[in-house]
Amino acid sequence: MFQSYFSVGGSAESSNACDVETILNRPSVEVVEIALLALQGAGVELVEWDVLLRMRMGDFSYLVPDDRLEDACNILESIGLPSSPPSDLALESQGDLYARGRFYRITRSTQPFFTDRISLYPFSLATFSRSELSEQQPSHLSPSRCSSILVPRPSAVCAFIIRTMAKYPRYCYTRTVLDNESGELVLYFFLGYTLHNLHKEEEEAWQLEDKDRRIAAASNTVKQ
């Protein structure tokens, strides 16, 4: 049984004392904090994955070494996070890469549109080199008591998406999902939009902003 002790919100508790009825009463970001502390305490190396695209949808995604994936899943279960596999419809619509994830619910709600989750993927999914990763503070909570985790460079993520898209037929779910994600990455990294911070009803507002200025700034970024 995992025995690490930690404190969140001023109260200390044993991770194996956190059952599903207590840990899921906390805000999602606090649950993520507990989970990352537990994983790091067990020596599981984490790579923040898909964070800019997924956090606004309530998913906190991480790559872990392939040989530690089962250990990481067992740790999340030991602190009271229930396994939350996606529906067949979600698997079909999100493509092959999504199907390789292991999902754990971090909210009491089990309704699809009101459920936040931690997602773990094997590191071999993306195979970033060490030079493409940098150590940064986790983005789920600031300030955080967690140690630094590895974060891929934006260019490395874009390159991964392009390489992976080339492996699939033009019209298939996986390639469509990757195509959409590449578009969101361009909006964020090159044009400066932050759609992941907007409410759904506000997402159309960016279309009314000064596009010419953003496109000019993006051109300068690409030329650097």
TrEMBL record:
Domain of life: Eukaryota
Name of the protein in its database record: Uncharacterized protein
Record lineage: Eukaryota, Fungi, Dikarya, Basidiomycota, Agaricomycotina
